[in-house]
């Protein structure tokens, strides 16, 4: 690597890191928090006996899981303005990622709830709990422990998926790499450098995931 490339690499470290911390991570956290809330609601509706809401929830999951995330972002950001709905890039990205996380994670939450033995329901009913109380106090806490590993994987995947927000002009880390590339004409160097930051963020999250799983395993064993 010649001196010019080394200098470009060093000069772009801080801008890329700032973009990751100031834009990529907040987008990930907000989208995942909202998406997880939507996932729990969707899972509970799909497990309920409410026919119409159940059909709507199932349709939502079917559509989101059956179409590309990039296409969904384009519809939200570029398509909705044709019907008078203009959204800020951050809001559009949050909506797109929230819908995606909600659909995929709802299947994780639903499977986790179904994995709890029916004896847990019966035990809760035997002490006078209603179905809502049993769900809130007995079933969901156990399902949460079961769903932590797959949900953690979804969160880590979302960190990488946020790079798609660059396609709707949101200046997260990948978009910043594109901007620097446009002035330095070093796409291989800049995109590899951005990849290193994504790798760093995901490695830290993977370590936190393992720590959380160990804590939960110790709690379950006790």
Automatic annotation (TrEMBL):
It is a multi-pass membrane protein. Residues 21-209 form the ABC transmembrane type-1 domain. GO terms for molecular function: L-cystine transmembrane transporter activity. Belongs to the binding-protein-dependent transport system permease family. The chain crosses the membrane at residues 20-45, 57-80, 188-208. Keywords: Amino-acid transport, Cell membrane, Membrane, Transmembrane, Transmembrane helix, Transport. It is found in: Cell membrane. This is Cysteine ABC transporter permease. One of its GO terms (cellular component) is ATP-binding cassette (ABC) transporter complex.
